Protein backbone atom coordinates (compact mmCIF):
# COMPACT_ATOMS: atom_id res chain seq x y z
CA UNK A 1 0.00 0.00 0.00
CA UNK A 2 1.05 3.61 -0.51
CA UNK A 3 0.86 6.58 1.83
CA UNK A 4 -1.70 9.35 1.33
CA UNK A 5 -1.74 12.84 2.91
CA UNK A 6 -4.33 15.55 3.43
CA UNK A 7 -1.72 18.06 2.28
CA UNK A 8 1.94 17.98 1.27
CA UNK A 9 2.91 21.61 1.95
CA UNK A 10 4.41 20.53 5.26
CA UNK A 11 6.40 17.81 3.50
CA UNK A 12 7.82 20.37 1.04
CA UNK A 13 8.68 22.59 4.00
CA UNK A 14 10.49 19.71 5.65
CA UNK A 15 12.60 19.31 2.50
CA UNK A 16 13.65 22.96 2.66
CA UNK A 17 14.32 23.05 6.39
CA UNK A 18 15.77 19.62 7.10
CA UNK A 19 17.45 18.69 3.82
CA UNK A 20 18.41 22.16 2.55
CA UNK A 21 16.60 21.54 -0.72
CA UNK A 22 15.39 24.65 -2.53
CA UNK A 23 12.01 25.41 -4.07
CA UNK A 24 13.79 25.64 -7.42
CA UNK A 25 15.20 22.15 -7.02
CA UNK A 26 11.83 20.65 -6.09
CA UNK A 27 10.22 22.39 -9.03
CA UNK A 28 12.89 21.13 -11.42
CA UNK A 29 12.06 17.59 -10.35
CA UNK A 30 8.34 18.27 -10.79
CA UNK A 31 9.02 19.42 -14.35
CA UNK A 32 11.32 16.44 -15.03
CA UNK A 33 8.55 14.07 -13.94
CA UNK A 34 6.14 15.74 -16.36
CA UNK A 35 8.78 15.50 -19.09
CA UNK A 36 9.25 11.78 -18.41
CA UNK A 37 5.52 11.23 -18.79
CA UNK A 38 5.73 12.69 -22.28
CA UNK A 39 9.02 11.24 -23.52
CA UNK A 40 8.14 7.69 -22.45
CA UNK A 41 5.22 7.54 -24.91
CA UNK A 42 5.53 10.32 -27.46
CA UNK A 43 8.04 10.67 -30.27
CA UNK A 44 10.19 13.74 -30.68
CA UNK A 45 8.50 16.55 -32.58
CA UNK A 46 5.07 15.71 -31.12
CA UNK A 47 3.18 18.90 -30.35
CA UNK A 48 2.69 19.81 -26.68
CA UNK A 49 0.30 22.50 -25.48
CA UNK A 50 1.19 23.70 -21.99
CA UNK A 51 -1.36 25.92 -20.25
CA UNK A 52 0.19 27.69 -17.27
CA UNK A 53 -1.52 29.68 -14.53
CA UNK A 54 -0.10 32.45 -12.37
CA UNK A 55 1.11 30.34 -9.44
CA UNK A 56 3.66 27.59 -8.89
CA UNK A 57 1.53 25.06 -10.71
CA UNK A 58 1.96 27.27 -13.73
CA UNK A 59 5.65 27.53 -12.95
CA UNK A 60 5.97 23.71 -13.17
CA UNK A 61 4.46 23.90 -16.65
CA UNK A 62 6.77 26.70 -17.77
CA UNK A 63 9.79 24.73 -16.53
CA UNK A 64 8.50 21.79 -18.58
CA UNK A 65 8.33 24.00 -21.67
CA UNK A 66 12.05 24.74 -21.20
CA UNK A 67 12.87 21.03 -20.79
CA UNK A 68 11.01 20.06 -23.95
CA UNK A 69 12.09 23.02 -26.09
CA UNK A 70 13.69 22.08 -29.43
CA UNK A 71 12.95 18.35 -29.33
CA UNK A 72 9.18 18.75 -29.00
CA UNK A 73 6.94 21.30 -30.67
CA UNK A 74 6.16 23.29 -27.53
CA UNK A 75 3.28 25.74 -27.37
CA UNK A 76 3.14 27.65 -24.10
CA UNK A 77 -0.09 29.47 -23.27
CA UNK A 78 -0.18 31.80 -20.25
CA UNK A 79 -3.65 33.34 -20.00
CA UNK A 80 -3.17 35.46 -16.86
CA UNK A 81 -0.49 37.73 -15.48
CA UNK A 82 2.04 35.70 -13.54
CA UNK A 83 2.02 36.22 -9.78
CA UNK A 84 4.45 33.77 -8.25
CA UNK A 85 8.14 34.75 -8.29
CA UNK A 86 9.05 31.22 -9.38
CA UNK A 87 6.68 31.40 -12.34
CA UNK A 88 8.27 34.69 -13.37
CA UNK A 89 11.75 33.20 -13.05
CA UNK A 90 10.77 30.11 -15.04
CA UNK A 91 9.32 32.29 -17.79
CA UNK A 92 12.47 34.37 -17.94
CA UNK A 93 14.56 31.20 -18.31
CA UNK A 94 12.25 29.81 -20.98
CA UNK A 95 12.21 33.04 -22.96
CA UNK A 96 16.00 33.39 -22.83
CA UNK A 97 16.12 30.02 -24.58
CA UNK A 98 13.66 31.18 -27.20
CA UNK A 99 10.40 29.58 -26.04
CA UNK A 100 7.57 31.60 -27.55
CA UNK A 101 4.17 32.14 -26.05
CA UNK A 102 1.06 31.50 -28.10
CA UNK A 103 -1.97 33.80 -27.95
CA UNK A 104 -4.73 31.28 -28.33
CA UNK A 105 -5.33 27.65 -27.53
CA UNK A 106 -4.40 25.09 -30.18
CA UNK A 107 -5.15 21.38 -30.19
CA UNK A 108 -1.91 19.41 -29.87
CA UNK A 109 -0.88 15.75 -29.49
CA UNK A 110 -0.43 16.39 -25.77
CA UNK A 111 -2.03 18.91 -23.43
CA UNK A 112 -0.49 19.75 -20.06
CA UNK A 113 -2.82 21.41 -17.57
CA UNK A 114 -0.75 23.53 -15.21
CA UNK A 115 -3.39 26.20 -14.70
CA UNK A 116 -4.13 25.67 -11.00
CA UNK A 117 -2.83 23.11 -8.56
CA UNK A 118 -2.99 22.84 -4.81
CA UNK A 119 -3.41 26.63 -4.53
CA UNK A 120 -6.88 26.67 -6.10
CA UNK A 121 -9.23 28.78 -4.02
CA UNK A 122 -12.67 30.06 -4.99
CA UNK A 123 -14.63 28.95 -8.04
CA UNK A 124 -12.86 29.06 -11.38
CA UNK A 125 -13.63 32.34 -13.11
CA UNK A 126 -15.30 32.36 -16.49
CA UNK A 127 -12.06 32.67 -18.43
CA UNK A 128 -10.57 29.64 -16.66
CA UNK A 129 -13.76 27.65 -17.16
CA UNK A 130 -13.65 28.40 -20.88
CA UNK A 131 -10.04 27.26 -21.09
CA UNK A 132 -10.79 23.98 -19.31
CA UNK A 133 -13.86 23.41 -21.47
CA UNK A 134 -11.76 23.87 -24.61
CA UNK A 135 -8.96 21.62 -23.36
CA UNK A 136 -11.51 18.94 -22.45
CA UNK A 137 -12.91 19.06 -25.97
CA UNK A 138 -9.51 18.16 -27.49
CA UNK A 139 -8.64 14.60 -28.45
CA UNK A 140 -5.14 15.15 -27.11
CA UNK A 141 -3.43 13.00 -24.49
CA UNK A 142 -4.13 14.98 -21.34
CA UNK A 143 -1.68 15.38 -18.49
CA UNK A 144 -2.59 17.19 -15.27
CA UNK A 145 0.21 18.78 -13.30
CA UNK A 146 -0.22 17.85 -9.62
CA UNK A 147 -4.04 17.78 -9.74
CA UNK A 148 -6.53 18.43 -12.54
CA UNK A 149 -7.49 22.11 -12.51
CA UNK A 150 -10.90 22.58 -10.93
CA UNK A 151 -10.49 19.99 -8.17
CA UNK A 152 -10.01 21.75 -4.85
CA UNK A 153 -7.98 20.63 -1.84
CA UNK A 154 -10.98 18.67 -0.52
CA UNK A 155 -11.34 16.83 -3.81
CA UNK A 156 -14.50 18.71 -4.69
CA UNK A 157 -15.38 20.39 -7.99
CA UNK A 158 -17.49 23.53 -7.88
CA UNK A 159 -17.78 24.34 -11.57
CA UNK A 160 -15.87 22.00 -13.84
CA UNK A 161 -12.50 20.28 -14.01
CA UNK A 162 -9.86 19.08 -16.44
CA UNK A 163 -10.34 15.48 -17.58
CA UNK A 164 -6.85 14.02 -17.32
CA UNK A 165 -5.58 10.78 -18.81
CA UNK A 166 -2.78 10.93 -16.29
CA UNK A 167 -2.14 13.10 -13.25
CA UNK A 168 1.50 13.60 -12.32
CA UNK A 169 1.15 14.51 -8.69
CA UNK A 170 4.01 16.16 -6.87
CA UNK A 171 5.84 14.47 -3.98
CA UNK A 172 3.12 12.23 -2.57
CA UNK A 173 -0.50 11.14 -2.95
CA UNK A 174 -3.19 13.49 -1.62
CA UNK A 175 -6.71 12.72 -0.40
CA UNK A 176 -8.13 15.23 -2.90
CA UNK A 177 -7.27 12.77 -5.69
CA UNK A 178 -9.33 10.01 -4.11
CA UNK A 179 -12.78 11.44 -3.57
CA UNK A 180 -15.61 9.87 -5.54
CA UNK A 181 -16.00 13.18 -7.40
CA UNK A 182 -12.35 13.26 -8.47
CA UNK A 183 -12.39 9.68 -9.78
CA UNK A 184 -13.69 10.60 -13.24
CA UNK A 185 -11.03 13.30 -13.68
CA UNK A 186 -7.67 12.14 -12.36
CA UNK A 187 -6.95 9.29 -14.78
CA UNK A 188 -3.87 7.26 -13.93
CA UNK A 189 -1.99 8.76 -10.99
CA UNK A 190 1.80 8.98 -11.09
CA UNK A 191 3.78 10.35 -8.15
CA UNK A 192 6.74 12.61 -8.99
CA UNK A 193 9.83 12.26 -6.89
CA UNK A 194 10.84 15.82 -5.91
CA UNK A 195 14.56 15.34 -5.36
CA UNK A 196 14.57 12.70 -2.65
CA UNK A 197 12.99 9.25 -2.67
CA UNK A 198 9.41 9.04 -1.42
CA UNK A 199 10.63 7.10 1.60
CA UNK A 200 12.55 10.24 2.60
CA UNK A 201 9.97 12.83 1.51
CA UNK A 202 7.07 11.12 3.26
CA UNK A 203 6.37 11.11 6.99
CA UNK A 204 4.10 8.91 9.10
CA UNK A 205 0.49 8.93 8.01
CA UNK A 206 -2.75 7.13 8.86
CA UNK A 207 -4.08 7.20 5.30
CA UNK A 208 -3.24 4.50 2.78
CA UNK A 209 -3.96 3.59 -0.83
CA UNK A 210 -4.58 -0.12 -1.25
CA UNK A 211 -2.78 -2.03 -3.98
CA UNK A 212 -3.46 -5.41 -5.59
CA UNK A 213 -0.75 -6.99 -3.41
CA UNK A 214 -2.78 -6.09 -0.32
CA UNK A 215 -5.41 -8.66 -1.29
CA UNK A 216 -4.87 -11.74 0.87
CA UNK A 217 -6.92 -14.57 -0.63
CA UNK A 218 -8.04 -17.35 1.71
CA UNK A 219 -5.78 -19.89 -0.01
CA UNK A 220 -5.76 -23.07 2.02
CA UNK A 221 -2.36 -24.07 3.29
CA UNK A 222 -3.38 -26.91 5.58
CA UNK A 223 -3.52 -30.45 4.22
CA UNK A 224 -5.03 -31.95 7.36
CA UNK A 225 -8.30 -30.05 7.12
CA UNK A 226 -12.05 -30.55 7.02
CA UNK A 227 -14.96 -28.22 6.31
CA UNK A 228 -15.06 -27.03 9.90
CA UNK A 229 -11.48 -25.81 9.58
CA UNK A 230 -12.73 -23.01 7.32
CA UNK A 231 -15.50 -21.68 9.48
CA UNK A 232 -19.27 -21.55 9.42
CA UNK A 233 -20.98 -18.33 8.41
CA UNK A 234 -24.59 -17.69 9.42
CA UNK A 235 -26.41 -15.22 7.19
CA UNK A 236 -29.56 -13.75 8.69
CA UNK A 237 -32.20 -13.65 5.97
CA UNK A 238 -34.82 -10.91 6.09
CA UNK A 239 -38.00 -10.08 4.22
CA UNK A 240 -36.11 -9.40 0.97
CA UNK A 241 -34.75 -12.91 0.91
CA UNK A 242 -32.68 -12.58 -2.26
CA UNK A 243 -30.14 -10.28 -0.59
CA UNK A 244 -29.22 -12.83 2.07
CA UNK A 245 -29.10 -15.67 -0.44
CA UNK A 246 -26.70 -13.68 -2.67
CA UNK A 247 -24.49 -13.03 0.38
CA UNK A 248 -24.58 -16.70 1.35
CA UNK A 249 -23.58 -17.85 -2.14
CA UNK A 250 -20.75 -15.29 -2.26
CA UNK A 251 -19.51 -16.45 1.15
CA UNK A 252 -19.43 -20.09 0.07
CA UNK A 253 -17.58 -19.23 -3.14
CA UNK A 254 -14.98 -17.27 -1.15
CA UNK A 255 -13.91 -20.16 1.00
CA UNK A 256 -16.17 -20.48 4.06
CA UNK A 257 -16.33 -24.21 4.89
CA UNK A 258 -20.01 -24.02 5.79
CA UNK A 259 -22.69 -21.42 5.18
CA UNK A 260 -26.19 -21.45 6.68
CA UNK A 261 -28.99 -18.97 6.42
CA UNK A 262 -31.10 -18.16 9.45
CA UNK A 263 -34.68 -17.91 8.25
CA UNK A 264 -38.07 -18.94 9.59
CA UNK A 265 -39.72 -19.24 6.22
CA UNK A 266 -38.96 -21.55 3.36
CA UNK A 267 -36.13 -20.25 1.15
CA UNK A 268 -35.05 -21.55 -2.19
CA UNK A 269 -31.41 -22.39 -1.58
CA UNK A 270 -28.70 -24.14 -3.55
CA UNK A 271 -28.03 -27.59 -2.08
CA UNK A 272 -24.73 -26.57 -0.45
CA UNK A 273 -26.27 -23.80 1.67
CA UNK A 274 -28.08 -24.96 4.81
CA UNK A 275 -31.05 -23.43 6.57
CA UNK A 276 -31.47 -22.99 10.31
CA UNK A 277 -33.73 -21.13 12.76
CA UNK A 278 -31.11 -20.12 15.29
CA UNK A 279 -27.39 -19.44 15.31
CA UNK A 280 -25.58 -22.68 14.47
CA UNK A 281 -23.61 -24.20 17.34
CA UNK A 282 -20.36 -24.12 15.40
CA UNK A 283 -21.05 -20.72 13.84
CA UNK A 284 -17.82 -18.67 13.52
CA UNK A 285 -19.24 -15.46 12.05
CA UNK A 286 -22.53 -13.71 11.34
CA UNK A 287 -23.72 -11.56 8.45
CA UNK A 288 -26.90 -9.56 8.92
CA UNK A 289 -28.81 -6.58 7.69
CA UNK A 290 -28.89 -7.24 3.95
CA UNK A 291 -32.53 -7.29 2.86
CA UNK A 292 -33.63 -7.48 6.50
CA UNK A 293 -36.79 -5.38 6.23
CA UNK A 294 -39.24 -5.98 9.09
CA UNK A 295 -37.61 -7.99 11.85
CA UNK A 296 -38.17 -9.54 15.25
CA UNK A 297 -36.47 -7.09 17.60
CA UNK A 298 -35.66 -9.63 20.30
CA UNK A 299 -34.06 -12.01 17.84
CA UNK A 300 -31.90 -9.31 16.21
CA UNK A 301 -30.95 -7.94 19.63
CA UNK A 302 -29.71 -11.38 20.67
CA UNK A 303 -27.70 -11.73 17.48
CA UNK A 304 -26.19 -8.25 17.84
CA UNK A 305 -25.12 -9.12 21.39
CA UNK A 306 -23.23 -12.19 20.21
CA UNK A 307 -19.46 -12.20 20.65
CA UNK A 308 -18.98 -13.76 17.22
CA UNK A 309 -17.35 -11.68 14.46
CA UNK A 310 -20.15 -9.89 12.67
CA UNK A 311 -20.70 -7.93 9.48
CA UNK A 312 -23.71 -5.61 9.44
CA UNK A 313 -25.20 -4.13 6.28
CA UNK A 314 -28.12 -2.19 4.86
CA UNK A 315 -31.41 -1.81 6.75
CA UNK A 316 -29.91 -1.92 10.23
CA UNK A 317 -28.11 1.39 9.69
CA UNK A 318 -31.46 3.14 10.08
CA UNK A 319 -32.24 1.50 13.42
CA UNK A 320 -31.29 2.46 16.98
CA UNK A 321 -30.79 -1.21 17.75
CA UNK A 322 -27.48 -1.15 15.84
CA UNK A 323 -25.89 0.78 18.72
CA UNK A 324 -25.76 -2.47 20.70
CA UNK A 325 -22.96 -3.64 18.41
CA UNK A 326 -20.89 -0.49 18.11
CA UNK A 327 -18.61 -1.05 21.08
CA UNK A 328 -17.35 -4.26 19.42
CA UNK A 329 -15.07 -4.97 16.47
CA UNK A 330 -17.97 -5.36 14.04
CA UNK A 331 -17.66 -4.61 10.32
CA UNK A 332 -20.21 -2.12 8.97
CA UNK A 333 -20.68 -1.78 5.20
CA UNK A 334 -22.98 1.21 4.55
CA UNK A 335 -23.42 2.97 1.21
CA UNK A 336 -23.48 6.80 1.46
CA UNK A 337 -27.22 7.08 2.19
CA UNK A 338 -27.01 4.40 4.85
CA UNK A 339 -23.96 6.07 6.38
CA UNK A 340 -25.87 9.36 6.65
CA UNK A 341 -28.63 7.47 8.48
CA UNK A 342 -26.06 5.84 10.76
CA UNK A 343 -24.43 9.19 11.58
CA UNK A 344 -27.88 10.42 12.53
CA UNK A 345 -28.72 7.37 14.63
CA UNK A 346 -25.39 7.82 16.43
CA UNK A 347 -26.10 11.53 16.99
CA UNK A 348 -22.94 12.49 15.15
CA UNK A 349 -24.38 14.47 12.24
CA UNK A 350 -27.62 15.17 10.46
CA UNK A 351 -26.47 15.46 6.87
CA UNK A 352 -27.52 14.63 3.35
CA UNK A 353 -25.60 12.43 0.93
CA UNK A 354 -24.25 15.47 -0.97
CA UNK A 355 -22.56 16.83 2.15
CA UNK A 356 -21.16 13.39 2.99
CA UNK A 357 -19.76 12.89 -0.49
CA UNK A 358 -17.97 16.25 -0.28
CA UNK A 359 -16.38 15.26 3.03
CA UNK A 360 -16.11 11.47 3.06
CA UNK A 361 -12.79 11.39 4.90
CA UNK A 362 -14.01 13.85 7.54
CA UNK A 363 -17.18 11.93 8.43
CA UNK A 364 -15.40 8.58 8.39
CA UNK A 365 -12.84 10.02 10.81
CA UNK A 366 -15.59 11.45 12.98
CA UNK A 367 -17.40 8.11 13.20
CA UNK A 368 -14.24 6.11 13.92
CA UNK A 369 -13.23 8.52 16.67
CA UNK A 370 -16.47 7.78 18.51
CA UNK A 371 -16.41 4.04 17.76
CA UNK A 372 -12.70 3.12 17.53
CA UNK A 373 -13.28 -0.64 17.56
CA UNK A 374 -15.70 -0.69 14.65
CA UNK A 375 -14.40 -1.39 11.14
CA UNK A 376 -16.26 0.95 8.83
CA UNK A 377 -16.40 0.25 5.11
CA UNK A 378 -17.99 3.22 3.37
CA UNK A 379 -19.03 2.17 -0.13
CA UNK A 380 -18.66 4.39 -3.14
CA UNK A 381 -16.67 4.81 -6.33
CA UNK A 382 -13.61 4.80 -4.06
CA UNK A 383 -14.30 2.68 -1.00
CA UNK A 384 -12.97 3.88 2.37
CA UNK A 385 -12.18 1.23 4.97
CA UNK A 386 -11.39 2.60 8.40
CA UNK A 387 -10.73 1.57 11.96
CA UNK A 388 -9.68 3.89 14.77
CA UNK A 389 -7.34 6.42 13.14
CA UNK A 390 -6.46 4.49 10.01
CA UNK A 391 -8.20 4.87 6.66
CA UNK A 392 -7.54 2.67 3.62
CA UNK A 393 -8.75 3.61 0.13
CA UNK A 394 -9.78 1.04 -2.46
CA UNK A 395 -9.90 2.59 -5.94
CA UNK A 396 -10.25 -0.65 -7.95
CA UNK A 397 -14.05 -0.59 -8.21
CA UNK A 398 -15.89 0.68 -11.25
CA UNK A 399 -19.40 1.29 -12.56
CA UNK A 400 -19.54 -2.43 -13.47
CA UNK A 401 -20.57 -2.79 -9.82
CA UNK A 402 -23.38 -0.22 -9.92
CA UNK A 403 -26.06 -2.88 -9.73
CA UNK A 404 -28.52 -4.10 -7.13
CA UNK A 405 -26.96 -7.03 -5.32
CA UNK A 406 -23.30 -5.96 -5.60
CA UNK A 407 -23.34 -4.84 -1.98
CA UNK A 408 -24.88 -8.14 -0.88
CA UNK A 409 -22.00 -9.98 -2.55
CA UNK A 410 -19.57 -7.76 -0.66
CA UNK A 411 -21.34 -8.50 2.65
CA UNK A 412 -21.01 -12.21 1.94
CA UNK A 413 -17.31 -11.89 1.09
CA UNK A 414 -16.59 -10.03 4.33
CA UNK A 415 -18.62 -12.61 6.29
CA UNK A 416 -16.75 -15.44 4.61
CA UNK A 417 -13.34 -14.09 5.64
CA UNK A 418 -14.56 -13.37 9.17
CA UNK A 419 -15.80 -16.95 9.39
CA UNK A 420 -12.38 -18.15 8.24
CA UNK A 421 -10.64 -16.30 11.04
CA UNK A 422 -9.48 -13.06 9.40
CA UNK A 423 -9.29 -10.09 11.76
CA UNK A 424 -12.20 -7.71 11.04
CA UNK A 425 -10.04 -5.00 9.43
CA UNK A 426 -8.17 -7.56 7.29
CA UNK A 427 -11.46 -9.18 6.29
CA UNK A 428 -12.92 -5.83 5.19
CA UNK A 429 -9.79 -4.90 3.22
CA UNK A 430 -9.38 -8.22 1.41
CA UNK A 431 -13.10 -8.64 0.74
CA UNK A 432 -13.34 -5.12 -0.68
CA UNK A 433 -10.30 -5.68 -2.90
CA UNK A 434 -11.57 -9.08 -4.07
CA UNK A 435 -14.97 -7.57 -4.84
CA UNK A 436 -13.56 -4.70 -6.92
CA UNK A 437 -10.78 -6.64 -8.66
CA UNK A 438 -13.16 -9.49 -9.51
CA UNK A 439 -15.53 -6.97 -11.09
CA UNK A 440 -12.69 -5.47 -13.12
CA UNK A 441 -11.85 -8.96 -14.42
CA UNK A 442 -15.36 -9.30 -15.88
CA UNK A 443 -14.54 -8.62 -19.51
CA UNK A 444 -17.86 -8.90 -21.38
CA UNK A 445 -18.83 -5.24 -21.06
CA UNK A 446 -19.46 -2.86 -18.19
CA UNK A 447 -23.24 -3.06 -17.91
CA UNK A 448 -24.32 -6.68 -17.72
CA UNK A 449 -22.70 -8.07 -14.57
CA UNK A 450 -25.10 -9.79 -12.18
CA UNK A 451 -24.26 -11.00 -8.66
CA UNK A 452 -23.66 -14.57 -9.79
CA UNK A 453 -21.16 -13.35 -12.44
CA UNK A 454 -19.37 -11.43 -9.70
CA UNK A 455 -19.18 -14.51 -7.50
CA UNK A 456 -17.80 -16.50 -10.48
CA UNK A 457 -15.08 -13.86 -10.94
CA UNK A 458 -14.27 -13.98 -7.22
CA UNK A 459 -13.80 -17.74 -7.56
CA UNK A 460 -11.28 -17.16 -10.37
CA UNK A 461 -9.06 -14.68 -8.48
N1 LIG B 1 7.33 23.45 -2.80
C1 LIG B 1 6.36 23.82 -3.55
O1 LIG B 1 5.59 24.71 -3.20
C2 LIG B 1 6.15 23.10 -4.80
C3 LIG B 1 5.04 23.42 -5.56
N2 LIG B 1 4.80 22.82 -6.72
C4 LIG B 1 3.66 23.23 -7.54
O2 LIG B 1 3.03 24.35 -7.03
C5 LIG B 1 1.64 24.19 -6.98
C6 LIG B 1 1.07 25.05 -5.92
O3 LIG B 1 1.41 26.37 -6.28
P1 LIG B 1 0.66 27.63 -5.69
O4 LIG B 1 0.55 27.51 -4.23
O5 LIG B 1 1.34 28.82 -6.24
O6 LIG B 1 -0.81 27.48 -6.26
P2 LIG B 1 -1.42 27.40 -7.73
O7 LIG B 1 -0.37 27.52 -8.76
O8 LIG B 1 -2.28 26.23 -7.76
O9 LIG B 1 -2.36 28.69 -7.80
C7 LIG B 1 -2.30 29.72 -6.90
C8 LIG B 1 -2.51 31.05 -7.60
O10 LIG B 1 -3.76 31.07 -8.24
C9 LIG B 1 -4.62 32.07 -7.68
N3 LIG B 1 -5.95 31.45 -7.63
C10 LIG B 1 -6.36 30.45 -6.84
N4 LIG B 1 -7.64 30.11 -7.11
C11 LIG B 1 -8.03 30.90 -8.12
C12 LIG B 1 -9.23 31.02 -8.86
N5 LIG B 1 -10.28 30.25 -8.61
N6 LIG B 1 -9.30 31.93 -9.84
C13 LIG B 1 -8.24 32.72 -10.13
N7 LIG B 1 -7.07 32.66 -9.44
C14 LIG B 1 -6.96 31.77 -8.47
C15 LIG B 1 -4.03 32.39 -6.33
O11 LIG B 1 -4.35 33.69 -5.94
C16 LIG B 1 -2.54 32.19 -6.60
O12 LIG B 1 -2.00 33.33 -7.22
C17 LIG B 1 1.45 22.72 -6.77
O13 LIG B 1 0.18 22.29 -7.19
C18 LIG B 1 2.59 22.15 -7.58
O14 LIG B 1 2.19 21.96 -8.92
C19 LIG B 1 5.79 21.94 -7.33
O15 LIG B 1 6.57 22.73 -8.13
C20 LIG B 1 6.63 21.22 -6.33
C21 LIG B 1 7.15 22.10 -5.25
N1 LIG C 1 -19.25 3.37 -9.81
C1 LIG C 1 -18.75 2.51 -8.92
N2 LIG C 1 -17.42 2.42 -8.76
C2 LIG C 1 -16.91 1.57 -7.83
N3 LIG C 1 -17.65 0.76 -7.04
C3 LIG C 1 -18.99 0.83 -7.17
C4 LIG C 1 -19.61 1.69 -8.10
N4 LIG C 1 -20.95 1.53 -7.98
C5 LIG C 1 -21.15 0.61 -7.03
N5 LIG C 1 -19.98 0.18 -6.52
C6 LIG C 1 -19.80 -0.80 -5.44
O1 LIG C 1 -20.86 -1.75 -5.50
C7 LIG C 1 -21.40 -2.00 -4.21
C8 LIG C 1 -22.87 -1.56 -4.17
O2 LIG C 1 -23.40 -1.80 -2.91
P1 LIG C 1 -24.87 -1.36 -2.48
O3 LIG C 1 -25.12 0.04 -2.92
O4 LIG C 1 -25.02 -1.69 -1.05
O5 LIG C 1 -25.79 -2.30 -3.38
P2 LIG C 1 -26.89 -3.39 -3.01
O6 LIG C 1 -27.45 -3.04 -1.68
O7 LIG C 1 -27.91 -3.29 -4.09
O8 LIG C 1 -26.23 -4.71 -3.02
C9 LIG C 1 -20.51 -1.26 -3.23
O9 LIG C 1 -19.48 -2.10 -2.78
C10 LIG C 1 -19.93 -0.12 -4.09
O10 LIG C 1 -18.72 0.36 -3.57
K1 LIG D 1 -3.27 21.43 -12.73
Automatic annotation (TrEMBL):
It comes from the Bacteria. K(+) binds at residues 57, 113, 149. Keywords: ATP-binding, Isomerase, Lyase, Metal-binding, Multifunctional enzyme, NAD, NADP, Nucleotide-binding, Potassium. AMP binds at residue 407. Its EC number is 4.2.1.136, 5.1.99.6. GO terms for molecular function: ADP-dependent NAD(P)H-hydrate dehydratase activity; ATP binding; metal ion binding; NAD(P)HX epimerase activity. Homotetramer. This is Bifunctional NAD(P)H-hydrate repair enzyme. It comes from Halarcobacter anaerophilus. The lineage of its organism: Bacteria, Pseudomonadati, Campylobacterota, Epsilonproteobacteria, Campylobacterales.
